[in-house]
Write a structure and sequence with these properties.
The complex is a heterotrimer of chains A (268), B (353) and C (277). Chain A has 268 residues and is mainly alpha-helical. Chain A contains 14 helices and no strands. In chain B, 23% of the residues lie in helices and 37% in strands. The radius of gyration of chain B is 24 Å and the shape is elongated. The chains are: A mainly alpha (268), B alpha+beta (353), C mainly alpha (277).
Chain lengths: 268, 353, 277
């Protein structure tokens, strides 16, 4: 038990330290030895949210980007995964292997072509451009996740609905979809997480228009005078949605991790 | 008896790729009949039912309902209702919504739905459970919910796929009776799939016996019981099933292993090797020409079942009464010559004598 | 319903890849747009002779191997430990979720600024307190490499922990009871029952973590940018820097292609291993 607690602290301490730092004022942060007892202040959070260089626009950018990606992904992936699961295609096995393979491609390999393609179409630094690119990695992932869930729903229920005079669409809507709620929930969580946390694509393909918090974080470091406490505060705020999501939905996340071996859960 | 609800299958067959699961199925079912499809697992009876339902399409032959060719018609257009072996209840809906579902799909007005659902639920005695979800019901209650969903539409045809197999023995017997009564009250044609021959025999007006994807016999329970068409059918019906032994006929005598029985009635069949069928309840212990050794004794309540070694062959005898017979002892065995069934040794077909 | 999505999917990944390979056969310099021309395998030859590339290659292997190995050992140890304490599991699960849901770029930044900075970073403080003195955790090449490996391991060990904990929880208790009756001690029980039964899970999680480690980008970029110099440059980063810092897209593309091939090969091997088990 003690050993476990000690090991656990390896992960708790850094996060705790970030919280502590964000509550200090700048001078306090630079103190040596590092203090744990001090008078906390919310000044940093205030600055980060309302000050001259606030991150609100970045937050908005992240929200728009992540939400659009998630919504579009789910809208497209659910019908696709359902058909995939139900259809008896001979091409099914190589197809799913291919979908898997697309997940293995290192993003760096795609960044360059994507950059050039978006440039040519004039969609660089635009939401439609970035959401499109984000879709290229969330869609296969979502489909893969959902297909195994759909396959687990017994066919007999849909057959019963068909006999009860439902059309295929009605059967899908009334019978299958409610059953898949949990799966769709897990998918939403993972897709949102990945989209919110994405950095590489955002920094290369985005710009002044589309600048999510992950990029903002990076910019904080590049300014001459790094304000550590503000950085900590900014980072915490930037990560707040995903942390909240993580804690609230932890059971779903854990089930998603092990469900038929979920591939590369979060962005590198 | 209603005029609607007749079903006819003509030359129906089903193959999956190179595997044929069903061949040459010809059936005619009259309106209002309770018709069972009986057979061991994998014999094609469920496939036949699903073809009638429209969930599978026959690769050969045609299906007719009330004279109309429905072979290619989708299930929703056939006016059939089905109870699945797993019940296939919608777990996220209440019992009420489950039963109401078929009515909702044809846009029945809400006022009518309420009455119809309550009516159906009352018929199967689950009207007090309408607000529960399937996960909160017992097995028997779930089954009745599935039934209610099927009858609420007042269908022309009622299909049941081993609906009782998930119930415990006692419940199964009670529900059997209820089902039959329900079918009669509703006056609807019912096609019932089961591998339990007792069920089929007790519930059906007529039945079809399936083996290896073909129908081997069609008839009333009495027909199939008293005159089984093949040795396999004979060995399938009854509890315990009919004893089917390889015997040699010679000069009006039966040779079972090294035991001999006089059987003048069989003399016209000449010298040959046949399969002999004799029911456990039609073997007489205590008198007769031959001695056999008792290998097992089972007390079943009002009857006993005795396993005998007769000239090297195992036969089972069912005798009323409760007197114990020691294993290892010898008893005399005889049978009523009128009660013998004879089958061809190679084809298994019945030989009439 | 599936066909169009799948078609789009395939198009969206295959086309860029084809483009990438084509690009790698050309010399493209973004600073001199008019000068693009086809150079065939020249980029690859340059690669072959480039010391920086081989350094990156070597480090990538060491980095990937050590972080996945550490994640596995630590994650498994933790999972085994926590398995014994059912009541604490909720707490551990919550804590474990946190590092995983953070953006790697944020994690890299956290470590760089708050933990590893000499003077007030707590890692530095801890090392001084333990008598190991202060060091330039991110400035010294060897230490930077260790730090970067540590950061990745820190973030992803909880994943392995959660994954293996879930797998371990599915093992039936009566197997162990039977083993106890057969007088197997704890170590024997571990090697003869636990390990073989969770082997598929272990292989799967190794596959997952390995592919992620090979393409790790954001955390290292945020922590060291690939430095000092090129010390913490894994192939991924090298490709990025060459393409966008030096604007040599052709060469960068070639590096990316090599990484792609390496990843595919590793994944293929691991999958084959998985099927063999």
């Amino acid at each position: 038990m003690v050993v476990a607690a000690m090991l656990l602290s390896i992960w708790v301490v850094p996060i705790l330290w970030a919280i502590i730092t964000s509550l200090k004022n700048e001078k306090e942060v630079l103190a040596y030895p590092p203090t744990v007892i001090f008078t906390p202040t919310l000044h940093n959070f205030h600055e980060v949210l309302f000050g001259p260089t606030n991150i609100v626009s970045y937050l908005t950018s992240s929200i728009v980007l992540a939400t659009s990606t998630t919504v579009l992904t789910v809208l497209l992936a659910v019908p696709a995964a359902y058909s995939f699961a139900r259809l008896k295609l001979p091409a099914k096995k190589p197809m799913s292997f291919y979908v898997l393979a697309t997940q293995l491609v290192p993003p760096i390999g795609l960044i360059i072509p994507y950059y050039l393609i978006l440039n040519r179409v004039g969609w660089l630094d635009s939401y439609k451009g970035l959401v499109l690119i984000y879709l290229t990695f969330s869609l296969p992932f979502a489909i893969w996740l959902l297909v195994s869930y759909f396959e687990d729903i017994p066919r007999e229920m849909e057959e019963a609905a068909l006999i009860d005079r439902a059309s295929r669409l009605q059967a899908f809507w009334h019978v299958v979809l409610p059953q898949a709620r949990g799966a769709i929930g897990v998918t939403v969580i993972f897709v949102f997480l990945n989209a919110w946390n994405e950095f590489l694509f955002a920094v290369v393909l985005g710009g002044s228009n589309v600048s999510p918090v992950t990029v903002a974080m990076y910019n904080y470091i590049n300014t001459e005078q790094t304000q550590w406490a503000q950085l900590a505060a900014a980072a915490l705020i930037a990560m707040l949605p995903v942390i909240a999501l993580g804690i609230a939905a932890q059971r779903h996340i854990v089930s998603g991790l092990s469900a038929g071996s979920v591939k590369g859960v979060t962005r590198r | 008896m209603s005029k609607r609800g007749s079903v006819k299958l003509a030359g129906v067959g089903k193959s999956f790729g190179s595997t044929t699961v069903l061949q040459n199925v010809d059936l005619e079912i009259a309106p209002g009949e309770f018709f069972s499809l009986l057979g061991p697992s994998g014999s094609g009876k469920t496939t036949t039912l699903r073809i009638i339902a429209g969930l599978e399409v026959a690769t050969q032959g045609s299906v007719y309902m009330d004279g109309n060719d429905v072979t290619l018609l989708p299930p929703g257009d056939r006016d059939v209702a089905m109870v699945f072996q797993s019940y296939a209840l919608y777990p996220h809906m209440t019992v009420f919504d489950n039963i109401a579902f078929p009515l909702k799909m044809v846009r029945t007005p809400a006022s009518e739905i309420g009455t119809a659902v309550r009516d159906a639920a009352a018929r199967v005695r689950i009207d007090h459970l309408l607000t529960r979800k399937p996960g909160q019901l017992s097995g028997g209650q779930q089954q009745r919910c599935a039934l209610a969903r099927a009858i609420v539409r007042k269908p022309t045809l009622f299909l049941l796929d081993e609906p009782l197999s998930n119930l415990d023995a006692k419940l199964r017997i009670e529900t059997r009776v209820e089902l039959r009564r329900l079918q009669r009250t509703l006056d609807v044609t019912a096609i019932y799939v089961t591998h339990d021959q007792e069920e089929a025999m007790s519930m059906s007006d007529r039945l079809a016996i399936f083996m290896d994807g073909r129908i081997v016999q069609v008839g009333t329970p009495e027909d199939v019981y008293t005159r089984p068409a093949t040795s396999r059918v004979a060995g399938f019906l009854g509890n315990p099933p009919m004893n089917v032994l390889p015997v040699r006929l010679s000069g009006g005598q039966l040779l079972v292993g090294n035991a001999r029985f006089d059987a003048p009635r069989l003399r016209p069949l000449g010298e040959r090797e046949v399969l002999l069928g004799i029911r456990p309840s039609e073997i007489i212990l205590g008198t007769g020409d031959v001695e056999a050794t008792v290998t097992l004794f089972e007390l079943l309540g009002e009857d006993v079942i005795v396993d005998l070694d007769l000239g090297g062959e195992l036969i089972r005898v069912r005798v009323p009464g409760r007197s114990r017979i020691e294993e290892g002892t010898s008893v005399r065995v005889g049978f009523d010559p009128q009660k013998l069934h004879v089958f061809d040794r190679t084809t298994g077909e019945r030989i009439d004598i | 319903m599936a066909a169009p999505s799948v078609a789009v999917l395939i198009a969206s990944t295959t086309l860029p890849l084809v483009y990438l390979v084509w690009q790698s056969l050309r010399s493209t310099n973004l600073a001199m747009p008019g000068m693009d021309h086809f150079v065939g395998a020249e980029n690859y030859l340059r690669l072959w002779h480039d010391g920086r590339f081989w350094d990156a290659f070597g480090f990538t292997i060491i980095y990937t191997g050590s972080t996945v190995g550490l994640q596995l050992v630590l994650g498994l140890a933790l999972a085994l430990l926590i398995l014994q304490i059912p009541r604490a599991q909720w707490a551990f699960r919550t804590v474990a979720i946190l590092p995983i849901v953070l953006s790697p770029v944020v994690v890299g930044l956290f470590w760089r600024t708050l933990l590893l900075t000499p003077d007030f970073g707590i890692v530095d403080f801890a090392s001084r307190a333990l008598g190991l003195g202060s060091h330039n955790w991110l400035g010294d090449p060897l230490l930077a490499r260790i730090s970067v490996t540590a950061i990745h391991t820190w973030q992803w060990t909880p994943f392995v922990f959660l994954y293996l904990l879930a797998a371990l929880s599915t093992l039936p208790a009566d197997l162990y009871e039977a083993a106890r009756i057969d007088r197997a001690n704890a170590w024997r029980r571990f090697t003869n029952i636990t390990l073989p039964l969770i082997r598929p899970a272990i292989v799967m999680v190794v596959i997952l973590r390995m592919t992620v480690a090979l393409s790790a980008f954001a955390a290292i970029y945020a922590a060291t940018g690939g430095g000092p110099g090129t010390a913490t440059e894994i192939i991924n980063l090298l490709a990025y820097r060459v393409s966008f810092a030096e604007l040599s897209l052709g060469y960068g593309a070639a590096v990316a292609v090599v990484l792609l091939v390496v990843t595919m090969v590793v994944a293929a091997l691991l999958f084959r291993l998985r099927r063999a088990l």
